[in-house]
Amino acid sequence: MSTANAAILPPRSGPSGAASDAFWRHPTLLLFLLLTPPLLWLGIVYLGSLLALLAQSFFSIDHFTGRIDYSFTLDTYRELFTTPANIDIIVRTVLMAASVTIASAIIAFPIAYYAARYARGKWKALFYLGVMLPLWSSYLVKIYAWKLILAQEGILNWIFHKLHLYWLMDAYLSLPVIGGHSLSISYTGTFLVFVYIWLPYMILPLQASLERVPDNLLEASSDLGAKPSETFWNVIFPLALPGAIAGSIFTFSLTLGDYIVPGVIGSSRYFIGQVVYAQQGTAGNIPLAAAFTIVPMVIMGFYLWMAKRMGAFDAL
Amino acid sequence: MTSAVSFINVSRHYGEIRAVDGLDLEIREGEFFALLGPSGSGKTTSLRLIAGFERPTTGHIEIFGERAEGIPPYRRNVNTVFQDYALFPHLSVIDNVAYGLKMKGVSKNERRATAEEMLELVKLPGYGDRSPAKLSGGQRQRVALARALVNKPKVLLLDEPLGALDLKLREQMQEELKDLQKRLGITFVFVTHDQGEALSMADRIAVFDSGRIRQVGTPEDIYRKPRSRFVADFVGSSNVLPPEFTERVAGERCWSSLRPEAVRLVKSGGHEATLVSSSYLGSQYRCVFDVGGREINALIPAGAKLPAEGDEVRISWNKSDLHLMEDEA
């Protein structure tokens, strides 16, 4: 009998044939084989190093010898939370991360809204290109480019001079806290650069969430008597919130941990990332660096918990 | 009688495409009006023009005698039941229903009470706290209806509201909608591509084709006296007969239509025919006869003995059942 009209075909030859049959009979086997390597990576390398970090924060350093004392103690945390300078650093970093997140959300929303609801065809491609393009160039190059823009002799000041508006810049720079000698050495500068480099991480999830809002929900809202502003607050905003939260997790946590931007552009006051960098490097105080690293993680954990409680993930 | 909605020479063009083309239509207050037509015929666009989601390229729309030009949807006392219901996924059933009242600034307790009444009206009492995602298609349909009725609109627009339901539920909802419309006395404008639905529910029907209205009339008018071949073809499964055939059987040279149930088997007289095929439908047989090279569909009551396929028979119909049509198209 020829195989062409047999009801059951003979097994395929070779090991791949046998493997195919085995996988078909036990679908979980394939899943197991595919997931084991990444799970090992996540479980051992990633979670393991996180736990090692957590453990380090419960050790302490002997300030005379510079040696690490490997016995459990809360001294490092006590040092962290009783030194006023450390508290300042935490508050400064959290305030910066919060302002960067809010500003990113406000700037990203119209862009994401346009891309999700109006852009079609090549305009959509242009949108993706425009949002992603900055992500393809080096982070350091972008930061130094901003330094050139914001510096005392930079492009921005030159423009203000040419427009005879330098008095405006002067007035702004003379403001307490957010001002400074020039934008490149002020909190405003740090803030502007943070917003610039993290903006794509806010735009993309916002756009994805707005794209999932069907047009007829907006029509239904309008049909039921809602003015555009009411439709925004009652329909668009709650449905876009998961996207905004997802985006804010990026902008907030990336700002919390960054140590390069405030080092290049800003008043020379420390942010958490810079302290971690300094403590584990030149100061050799790994326990304090570890304790400082735990702070943003705890803050993020609390933030996610609040977001969940507020129902930000309900519409997912 | 006041007209609830008037279209005065309304067109809606999208570039080259004429979605609605020179529409004149009066929908009377308190009637159940169906816009019937194949997809792409302009019926949904017409509905959206009434709601205010679309603006006419030319012409005017009046709602209860008032010009609707430049009036946004949220200022029209007209509500819509959307084809796929468009329930707000982030709101509970009761908040969906109460949405219109919230926009009007009604207090929380009052709108909850009114919304609960509406849910009772659509036979979903006590469903308020559920999420729309947890409801079946038929239940969502009812929520959408309650939500659209809560503001007591002057006109209720329904865009193929029963399209997504299965047959049994659809028939039940047809009855309920009709009943609801009678009780509330609100003008209902109903878009459908299902001629059976339009015939059974509507007081009057407008048949749409390529952006234009082919005929407006009561279901009986539309069914018995289609004015054109398109209407005869689209509404019901009438036999549409060309002028040569009509001349042969009725002596007049024009297009005509003959409903399948009007055809009967006779012993003598009538016309010579061959039974081409037949199928059993329970109460009737659906038969196809060949009359001088022309196929005629017929519904023959079951019970009488049916000739075999290929047999020579004679068929006839009442002269008045052969409807002569005025229009060519």
TrEMBL record, chain A:
<keyword id="KW-1003">Cell membrane</keyword>
<feature type="transmembrane region" description="Helical">
    <location>
        <begin position="286"/>
        <end position="306"/>
    </location>
</feature>
<keyword id="KW-0472">Membrane</keyword>
<dbReference type="GO" id="GO:0005886">
    <property type="term" value="C:plasma membrane"/>
</dbReference>
<dbReference type="GO" id="GO:0055085">
    <property type="term" value="P:transmembrane transport"/>
</dbReference>
<feature type="transmembrane region" description="Helical">
    <location>
        <begin position="232"/>
        <end position="252"/>
    </location>
</feature>
<protein>
    <submittedName>
        <fullName>Inner membrane ABC transporter permease protein YdcU</fullName>
    </submittedName>
</protein>
<feature type="transmembrane region" description="Helical">
    <location>
        <begin position="185"/>
        <end position="204"/>
    </location>
</feature>
<keyword id="KW-0812">Transmembrane</keyword>
<keyword id="KW-1133">Transmembrane helix</keyword>
<dbReference type="Pfam" id="PF00528">
    <property type="entry name" value="BPD_transp_1"/>
</dbReference>
<dbReference type="InterPro" id="IPR000515">
    <property type="entry name" value="MetI-like"/>
</dbReference>
<dbReference type="InterPro" id="IPR035906">
    <property type="entry name" value="MetI-like_sf"/>
</dbReference>
<keyword id="KW-0813">Transport</keyword>
<feature type="transmembrane region" description="Helical">
    <location>
        <begin position="126"/>
        <end position="146"/>
    </location>
</feature>
<feature type="transmembrane region" description="Helical">
    <location>
        <begin position="89"/>
        <end position="114"/>
    </location>
</feature>
<feature type="domain" description="ABC transmembrane type-1">
    <location>
        <begin position="90"/>
        <end position="305"/>
    </location>
</feature>
<feature type="transmembrane region" description="Helical">
    <location>
        <begin position="29"/>
        <end position="55"/>
    </location>
</feature>
<comment type="similarity">
    <text>Belongs to the binding-protein-dependent transport system permease family. CysTW subfamily.</text>
</comment>
TrEMBL record, chain B:
<dbReference type="GO" id="GO:0015594">
    <property type="term" value="F:ABC-type putrescine transporter activity"/>
</dbReference>
<dbReference type="GO" id="GO:0005524">
    <property type="term" value="F:ATP binding"/>
</dbReference>
<keyword id="KW-0472">Membrane</keyword>
<keyword id="KW-0813">Transport</keyword>
<dbReference type="InterPro" id="IPR050093">
    <property type="entry name" value="ABC_SmlMolc_Importer"/>
</dbReference>
<dbReference type="GO" id="GO:0043190">
    <property type="term" value="C:ATP-binding cassette (ABC) transporter complex"/>
</dbReference>
<dbReference type="InterPro" id="IPR003439">
    <property type="entry name" value="ABC_transporter-like_ATP-bd"/>
</dbReference>
<keyword id="KW-0547">Nucleotide-binding</keyword>
<protein>
    <submittedName>
        <fullName>Spermidine/putrescine import ATP-binding protein PotA</fullName>
        <ecNumber>3.6.3.31</ecNumber>
    </submittedName>
</protein>
<dbReference type="Pfam" id="PF08402">
    <property type="entry name" value="TOBE_2"/>
</dbReference>
<dbReference type="GO" id="GO:0016887">
    <property type="term" value="F:ATP hydrolysis activity"/>
</dbReference>
<keyword id="KW-0378">Hydrolase</keyword>
<keyword id="KW-1003">Cell membrane</keyword>
<dbReference type="InterPro" id="IPR013611">
    <property type="entry name" value="Transp-assoc_OB_typ2"/>
</dbReference>
<dbReference type="InterPro" id="IPR017879">
    <property type="entry name" value="PotA_ATP-bd"/>
</dbReference>
<keyword id="KW-0067">ATP-binding</keyword>
<dbReference type="Pfam" id="PF00005">
    <property type="entry name" value="ABC_tran"/>
</dbReference>
<dbReference type="InterPro" id="IPR027417">
    <property type="entry name" value="P-loop_NTPase"/>
</dbReference>
<dbReference type="InterPro" id="IPR008995">
    <property type="entry name" value="Mo/tungstate-bd_C_term_dom"/>
</dbReference>
<keyword id="KW-1278">Translocase</keyword>
<dbReference type="InterPro" id="IPR003593">
    <property type="entry name" value="AAA+_ATPase"/>
</dbReference>
<comment type="similarity">
    <text>Belongs to the ABC transporter superfamily.</text>
</comment>
